[in-house]
Structure formats: C-alpha cells, structure tokens
User: Fold this.
Amino acid sequence: MKIAIVAAEAAPHAKAGGLADVIGSLPGALKVAGEEPSLVVPGYASIKENVETAPVIRDVPMRFGAGVERFSVLRASDPHGVPMYLIDHPGFFERRGIYGENGKDYPDNIRRFVFFGRAAAIVSAEVVAPDILHAHDWHSAAAPIAMRADNGLRPRFKNALSVFTIHNLAFQGISKREDFALLNLEAAYNSVDYLEFYNHLNLMKGAIVLCDGASTVSPTYAQEITTDPELGFGLEGVIRDKGANFVGILNGADYDEWNPAKDREIAATYTAAKPGGKRKCTRALRDSLGLPNREDWPVVGMVTRMTGQKGVDLLKDALDAVMRLDLQLVMLVSGDAVLEKFFKDAELRYPEKLRAIIEFNNTTAHRIQAGSDALLMPSRFEPCGLTQMYALRYGTAPVVRSTGGLRDTVSEFDPAAGTGNGFAFDKFEAAEMVAALSRMVAIFRERADWRALMANCFASDFSWERAARQYVEWFTRLRKARGLS
Ligand code: GLC
Assistant:
C-alpha cells in the first residue's frame, strides 16, 4: 500500500509534543512492515536547515479564499529513509515555532494549516498517488476534507481512502465561520452535517465526518471520547456516528531513541538483566541537582508540558502532602507561567526533596527517565501518553491516573501475585494520587518486591512493530469493505 502521511510535526526537527514522536516513528515502522509510506509536512526552517532537500515542483498556484497562494514542493528523506515532501511556503512556515513562540500561538494558525492540509492533498495526488491518505490532528484536517469535498481533487483520489487520527480532541481547529471561505468548497459543506459547529468552523469535525476511517491513539481513549461528554469536547456524537469505522490503536514507543542499553545521554547504560547502571544514573541525577543522596527514598520524575490535560494542578494542590512522603521529586516542566513560578518557589521550601527544571530539554528528559525510580503522570485525560512507555523501558515505575492510554499501558503492581508494572489511581483527586504515591514508597522499601516490579516494567513491550501491524490490518479491512484491493 502507498500511504501518504500528512502531519504538522515530525521528530526530530519539528517537535511540539507527542505527535512529533509518532510521526517520527510510524512511517519507518510501516516501511519495515512492507508498505510504501511517504510523509508530507510543512517546510519549516528547522527542517530545511537540517536535512538535504531537492526541488520537486515549483510554484504551484492554489486558490485560497478570495486570493491565490503559491507553494513549492521539496523532497527530503526522514531518518528511516522514508520520502518526506515539504510544502514550501516561507510566509507561512519559515518561523521559529511550529504553532507559535514565547508561549503564544500565531494568530494566523487557521490560515496556515488550512493551507497546509489543502496543499498536502494536492501533493499527495501529484507525487504519491496513495492508496491511503493518513492525516493527523486538526492541523492536517483540510487534507481529507479537500480529498472528499473539493470537486477538483475528488476524482484524483477515486481509488484512495482517507483516514484521520485524533491525537488530542481538546484541539479541534475551531475558528470563525467566515474562515470556511479558505477551503473554497461548495456552501453545502458549511452546514451542521459537515464543518459547521455551533456557528463556528470546526476543521477536525469536518475531517471526522468526511474521512473513510477515523482512529485515536489508544483503545480506552476511543471508548472514553464516545461515551464521556467531558472528554468528547462536543464531538462525541460525530465520532459515534462513524460506528465500526472508528478504532483505537495504541501508539508505539521509539525503542531506538529510548533504550537504556545504548543511551549516550545517561551516566551509565544498563539492561533488564544487568540493571546496576541505573543506580549510577540516580546518583548522577541527584548530584547534578544538588539533592542529598538518600538511597532509602525513591526519586520520582515528572516530564511534561504544563497544560490542563496533564494534571500538574493536581500536584500543585497536593504538593505539601506529597512532600511529607519519603521521596524526592524531580520535574522537567514548562508551559504555564503561574505553575512554573509555584514550583520554583516550592523548591525553596523543600530543598532536600524537590527540583523543578523549567524547560523542555531532551537530554534532561533521558537523564530523568534513567535516574528516577518512579514517574508521575496524573493526567486529567491522556489520549495515549508516551512518557510512561519510555519510563517502563528504563525500569522506572509509572504512577498514573488510569485514563486513556495510561489505563492501557500501566496496571497496579500486586506484590503477592507478582503482576503489574506500576501504580494507578482512578479518580482525578489529590488524595488518590497521594495514596498511589505512598503505595509506591511502601513497595520501594521492600527490595525484593521492587526488583519484581522493575522486571515487569522492563518486560512491558510497546513496540512500533505491533502498532504498524494494527494500522496495516485496519487499512486493509477498510479497503476490502470498499471493494478496493
Ligand atoms: C498527544 C496526546 C498524547 C499522545 C500524543 C501522541 O500529544 O496528548 O497523549 O501520546 O498526542 O499520539
């Protein structure tokens, strides 16, 4: 199958969050599975400066609202040798950030990404001729919309199916209704059956309605967003209407980048069979942060963007109770000025127990994963979550709120049965989180139990191989159902 993957982020050169990690891995995994993927992404300066590119098509004019925009197409290759096509439009994409900078979104993001999705559909038709166009999140939603609703493009995708993957339903690409004009579609699509949403334009809704198959990134989140209105963000009915054409496929984790046996960023490498190096990593982490070397206390790591989704506010409310436990907490967090200040101030109150590093830094993320005994993820909701998968790989026990992908990857350790790979709590409540952390601290004191838990962490396998196989099976099923082979 020829698969055109359309996305606004791609690790390593264009990353804002977990979406980039997925787009950095999925194409390579599909290639290994024997398929023929290619990638279509915006021509950000950060990519153009770091990879070799060659022009493919120059100066394509595209009607865009009342005007015309021109773009070129550059060909490059992703780290796994998958062809990567860049939509080159310096006015929209040669900026420092992906969605914005200094904590503020660019005001023209709707224009930028409607343009991107539409251009990506044209490029897919011109250079890929895919069997499947696979678009991700609202920034790519205009691609499957154009593929099905644009009279000029529809015939060119006669034998192709479109699939749309939701990585986060909290961001839907909602805008003022007049922006519908940017799609240059018949007025009929500006209705409640398609792109209209409470008198606004909703790009994600349009993609979900018009795609042949929709998915999200874990089975539990798939179930939650069709049944719990608080998590469905108004689209639960639209998603339910997809019926069997909506599925949940758990992401994989990039085990080349996240591998304690080969990691160059950490103080000592280690493996499940010989985990001794992990103690050195813990020591190095404490030393680098000036934390006392209390080996009787577990180090708890936290690596996250501070959005409402991630539950950092829950930790804020419970911080004093958490600090009463015998543990140390090392946070790598950024994104919310009020919370940043709160944890920096709290550091001064708990000099022996708390460090808050305010930035996003990949090297530090590796050192925290390797040096921590446990990793805290108290998410309010979590479509998949990748950080807990990385933690497991490093023998670091996740302490999670059981929601979305966290529920699908982490289960409570039972010392009697020897089962489970972490600690999980159900309700989004401070007391439940503190209780889970204190169960963790108690197990940490029982060295044999903790060793059994670590072995279960190491044994958890969330490889891309499995995820890619599930995508291929799903694409094949969709094509068969349409009488396409
Ligand atoms: C988003 C979600 C996260 C998921 C990632 C990749 O960032 O919030 O849960 O792991 O996308 O699918």
